[in-house]
Design goal:
Layout (H helix, E strand, L loop, with lengths): L1 H10 L3 E5 L10 E3 L13 H20 L7 H14 L7 E3 L1 H11 L2 E4 L2 E6 L2 E7 L4 H4 L7 E5 L2 E2 L5 H8 L6 E7 L6 E6 L1 E4 L3 E5 L5 E6 L6 H13 L5 E5 L8 H9 L7 E7 L4 E5 L11 E5 L6 H11 L4 E4 L7 E7 L5 E10 L15 E2 L4 H5 L4 H12 L2
Parallel strand pairs: 13-14, 14-17, 17-18, 18-21
Antiparallel strand pairs: 1-2, 1-19, 3-20, 4-11, 5-6, 6-7, 7-8, 7-9, 9-10, 12-13, 15-16, 15-20, 19-20
Length: about 400
Amino acid sequence: MFRAIIRTFLLTIVAIVLVGGAFGGGYVASRAILPPALTADGGAPSDWKAAIPVFWEAWNYVHQDFYKLPLDNDALVNGTVGGMVGALGDPHTVFIDAKRAALVRTEMQGSFEGIGATISMREGRLTIVSIIKGSPAERAGLRAEDIILQVGDKVIQNMDVTDAVTLIRGPKGTKVKLIIQRAKQDAFTVEITRDTIKTPFVESKMIEDTQIAYLRLNEFGATAPNEIAAALRELLSQNPTGLVFDLRSNPGGYLPVSIDVASQFLKADQVVLIVKDKNGNADTYRAKRGGAATEIPLVVLIDAGSASASEIVAAALKDHKRATLIGTKTFGKGSVQGVHTLSDKSELNVTIAHFFSPNGNGINEVGITPDIEVKVTEDDIAKKFDPQLDAAVKFLQKGK
């Protein structure tokens, strides 16, 4: 049985997809791969035949000797694949178990069913980081920094955050009971009815007391192109004299979305990026027609949290001299992953290529240097100052 599981995990590739996102997301193209019929040895190559006995020896000794029962064979399989991938030494070649992969896929579609709170495990305590506006969590009065002590009958402490998310999420209309600790107050219980939570990828506004428009993209998710297009129509109808496009702390996402987003600011057929595989073969991707903001003066805000698809867009706009980049150097994630969806819906992301700017500049482990460097200090954060945005507004108002 477990031989079959291992073979399924390691030998069967359901699909290969070119990607450029920080999560291994960013689909460029896909093609189905039909696995060959398995022989008696699973179709393993000769070098695999020499290595597999070591695995089975260890597997059998663990099952024979380990004192704590029962053993979780699924966890052992996941650990086996994760260990193999980790041995490659590439931070972007990763194994994502089925539970985590499902969460990523759901969130990148722009909606999910739950309560609408972002959470993080801090020193073993499940802490609310932020609340989505208009969500059931907001209506229930939950706040950032609240501690979730218990979900239903399950006490939450030192739990994997993915497992905690799975407990809290659930179908629309169902209820979940939480015990909350807030600062030094006594713990209290809230019952929340789950709902469909939409997570807009785009924020936009006219900056107060200016004629400068502000557009922020939080992630290159599936619905981002339509959200960007709608936001630009609304902003441009107010006749702004300049536009600030904020890509700070944007980890990336789907690569086709980066092309769609860049196309809003570039002229048709201008190069957005170049992808080169390990053999040096190159594919060039170009801007589409119909960009809404190809002429308006433009500043792009970047920082160390701007990665992958964010860097694709920022580099393209910089190389074509379409925008001025303000902020700090970007993360430097310029690799492309093949996404293999395995039989249990887990994912194996394998680095297969690197992407480059239109001028052929490498991005991986290099990043993109802004035209104008402006740093944000701890004091700025404490006082809620934003010197990078201030610099962008001043630049656009002066016209240089």
